[in-house]
Amino acid sequence: MKHSLIFTFIALIVFSCDFNDIPEPRDETQKWALAGYQVEVSGDLEYTNIQDSAYVYSLLPDGRFSKKVGEYELKGTYEESFSDGLKRYKFMYTSKNSLLIHSCATGTEDYFINSKGQLTGTWDACDGPKLYFNKQK
Questions:
Q1: Helix (H, G, I), strand (E, B), or coil: what is residue 86?
Q2: Which of 11, 40, 109, 133 could staple 103 via S-S, CB 3.0–4.6 A?
Q3: What does each C-alpha distance from 99 to 13, 46, 103, 106 come to in angstroms?
Q4: Is 116 left (phi over 0), alpha (psi -120 to 50) or beta?
Q5: What phi and psi values does residue 25 have, to the nearest 5 degrees?
Q6: pLDDT by residue (tens digit) across 118-136?
């Protein structure tokens, strides 16, 4: 009798939990390097592939990140979310005024993971390009 009550109690707890609300654990550093960009040329979107990029995001498990573009580096914190079927990242910079922040908003950048698994960002609203980053191993 005692075992069946314990089993019933455990089953009740397990089936009452909504595991979709549990965020994915951040247990490893992620590195994303620029793979290409897309700009509008004469009304058409033109994609340019990048080899050996020096433009890299490093995301740390504790919510901090760095962005390196050549010898320049910016740092800040990031948040992960999931909406509209996409995993999204919001990068918030400690330095608000930098030409290295690619966004229409001051001090933040919004990215998402596209269907190819690339970290993708755009600032189309300010006539900026779409950027595509591949995850490094």
A1: strand
A2: 109
A3: 51, 23, 10, 11
A4: alpha
A5: -65, 140
A6: 999 987 778 788 999 999 9
